[in-house]
Fold each of these.
Amino acid sequence: MPDTKPRTMFDKVWDAHVVEQLPDGTCVLYIDRHLVHEVTSPQAFEGLRMAGRKVRRPEGTIAVVDHNIPTNIDRTKPITEEESRIQCETLEANVAAFGVPYIPVTDIRQGIVHVIGPEQGLSLPGFTIVCGDSHTSTHGAMGALAFGIGTSEVEHVLATQTLLQKPAKNMLVRVDGTPGPGVTAKDIVLAIIGKIGTAGGTGHVIEFAGEAIRGLDMAGRLTVCNRSIEAGARAGMIAPDDTTFAYIKGRPYAPKGEAFDQAVAYWRGLAADEGAQYDKIVVLDAAEIAPQVTWGTNPEAVLPITGVVPNPADEADEGKRAQLQRMVEYMGLTPGQKLTDLKVDVVFIGSCTNSRIEDMRAAAAVAKGRKVAAGVQALVVPGSGLVKKQAEDEGLDVIFRDAGFEWRDAGCSMCLGMNPDKLTTGQRSASTSNRNFEGRQGPGGRTHLCSPAMAAAAAVTGHLADVREIV
Amino acid sequence: MQAFTTLTGVAAPLPLANVDTDKIIPARFLKTIKRSGLGVHLFDTLRYDADGKERADFVLNTEPYRHAEILIAHENFGCGSSREHAPWALLDFGIRCVIAPDFADIFHTNCFKNGILPVALPREICDLLIEDAKMGGNARVTVDLAREVVVRPNGEEIPFKIDPFRKHLMLNGLDDIGQTLQHAPAIDTFEGREKSEKPWMPEITSV
Ligand code: SF4
């Protein structure tokens, strides 16, 4: 179908993957890359088995364990927690039975699925990428259409290499200008979510653009797209440019030599056409963004670190007031309290949002020559075995250890309470992860989301702190 | 998948916005390799206290809502993770229909794959239905998928809209993988064309 209308990047990637369109507009959409992990795949493989189906395209699929795996044990030994062990063993059995490529836990390349995709060159511009995990939106930073799916859809992709989908709407989030000192990709995306809300992107694919986004390195872009889902969007994308191509070049699964040049020529055509139409446009000025921290129990409950806990009584809408009241109570806060007065018990630096080498460096820069405050447990969990090695080669582990941080092995760790790293009831954390829902980091845990530098600042001061006043 | 045609049952009021998937089922219960048995953990933190005892003030712990088949909530229901354990837990508890002003995308899709009908109705209507639901066991709500109407206890019919393709699958309890496999020749053609047009496209041949 020749289409002369100017198209967005989402339109282009979508159009290039439509196998067939059904009469009601539902499309059979081809999937280039399917990333599989242990939590959302067992029932999918079981479904295949019961229906006598095969994996259609193992060479487009890769599996890894990340959610369950403890980050402080000898990985050559089995996991002691029985259910976690069974889930990991089930994945190993399934990938063997169905011939799916698998990165084992003892492999240095093992890590959080959303870290290793880009790191290994598995996630490429123009691709459709799916995984049974909502933060698959991360890979959109490569200029891919990447989104999370449920287990039934995992099974669907395994069996057919396609999904049944209807196109999303287009949304443009443009961040103009340059951010001030101490303001990172995490602060930018937290500010975006604060502005548009947790449902602001529902039904849309967000394209992040503007000077502040183009100025980010790949780690920062991955952080921004990671959190598209927290704005309710189906996916987030950033147009691939020279920063993207330089990042991809030489990665293990990326095209090589002449194939790479051919690929780049194709990738350059992916950016939105001049005059492409968006259903929604939001504009922010990076210069107005201060380091951000969440105070409540959903990602839109976010404020500049200079702010104070809101007073639910100021909210006119009854439903919202009740929700704010619940947040204030759950989080153990007093309206009007300065955010910088909140003492933390735990600091978690890691997760698919912020566990790349650049994040490790940013946190180490704050930790260097300082000490973790008394009574604070601080964890640094690299996103992959390779990030860990690189950090060690740069001596970052020594900086962290000297400062009193724990230096862990790769995994999801305290991002979600399903492995041994958990908050206990009432504990308050500064975390670089992506969700601050009630109980997300463990039952009764209280999460404040922030950037790696801000988390490190909280660790060394013992309370939420404005990193700009420390470095 | 179980077909969904008409459902008449107890509706439970849950007037909360942004009910996230960690609320529907916390991550620590995702370690199962089965789809069944998650109902006891549905809304775990709202439903049980720290000692695992039922909280008397949570709607699903009270009669007649222990037998609810319909749940009525506020905006952005199901936001958060892609875990299909959320609809599995709802289904295992006995809930076949969720009515809310809007739903998070992935959760919305996951519902259809499991024979749970997500019905989007404006907030004012949800509030009306919540008032109906508060009347308890005498107030049964009917959801008729074929006619795309919700019938209030007073007989008033409220129309809703459902994507025709999904409606077809739901009404007939069809497996969508089976549907897609009917397009296998088109998928073959697509793959063949990709191979010739994008010879640079890498494959994962070894790890
Ligand atoms: S780090 Fe957290 S958000 Fe990312 S994949 Fe793991 S559990 Fe999910």
Note: The longest strand of chain B covers residues 6-14.
Amino acid sequence: MALEMPDNVLITKLDAIANWCRKYSLWPMPFATACCGIELMATGASRNDIARFGAEVFRFSPRQADLMIVAGRVPIKMMPVLQRIWLQMHEPKWCISMGACASTGGVFDTYAVVQGIDRFIPVDIYVPGCPPRPEQLIQAIVDLQEKIQREGTVMGREFEAPERQKPPLALRPEGRAGLPGLIAAPPPEQQP
Amino acid sequence: MELQGLIESLQRDFPSLSWSEFRGQVRAWVSRDRLFPLLKTLKEQHGFDMLADITCVDYLYYQEKKPARFGLVYVLTNTQTNQRLVVRTFLDEPDLVAPSATPLWEAANWLEREVWDMFGIRFAGHPDLRRILLPEDFASHPLRKDYPLQGLGERNNFPIIRRAES
């Protein structure tokens, strides 16, 4: 069957075009609690200009955002707030853990700082650095765009995949093999 | 009036008062039952109208032997003469109660809440002695020296949100 088709009509899959729309209109929700937030602001400012990648609309309301950028350490008093804000965001939503503190607790191995937000909320992309340069955050957004284009679906079925329900590799038993004591806190030292 | 002379003149009314000086800073020690009268006298008769800080020191595991485990520290300022005076007292377990300085300085309110939060020292007569920095349900007093640096598991005590649930 030959259909007469004008030259300016393109045919694609619905998933692909939805992913294409989503990846170029990521609206970040800046959850900036520390010095990584300064680099996050620099990423949004004119020199680095996150708008080149379609993510310039920083929304301070979680209901209007679909990308949470956790920039900075998260103390135990902030963790319930972070979880609540994450639950308030609408699907589809993604999370970038920016910097050493948000990803692992960084140098703050103390009673008050959560040792990585991925223990309690899902994280899609980790950005190393203390703090990361704006180029690294932009690279993370580009990587996230590739991830959305690669595995996204209109109905968000990729979020229900079993692999996404698992904790990150470092927190799984197989990821901890050969790394004794890396995750578990050492017993408190008894001083004389 | 020089601070040293002031302290020595106060020693008539406060026999437990002692003092020392380090690099021009005068520290006065007083027993707990005379702490509030001393602070009141210093404020009302000697012009120490500003309470700069209240803090505490835990001398557990301290090399030098101290009379008690906790040292409570008040930093007073005279805004007319710019004099500073540190008033200290010692508290020992299990009777960790000090008189509240809130009738004298309103600034004592939050400072005493912080000392309660971090060291577990109660202040008798405080209008609202709640935790100020840590979450309400926190059970320990983390600046005590016998509290482990990495905590007792409070930082791992959160619900885990998976992708399918959010």
Note: Residues 73 and 88 of chain B are 5 Å apart (CA to CA).
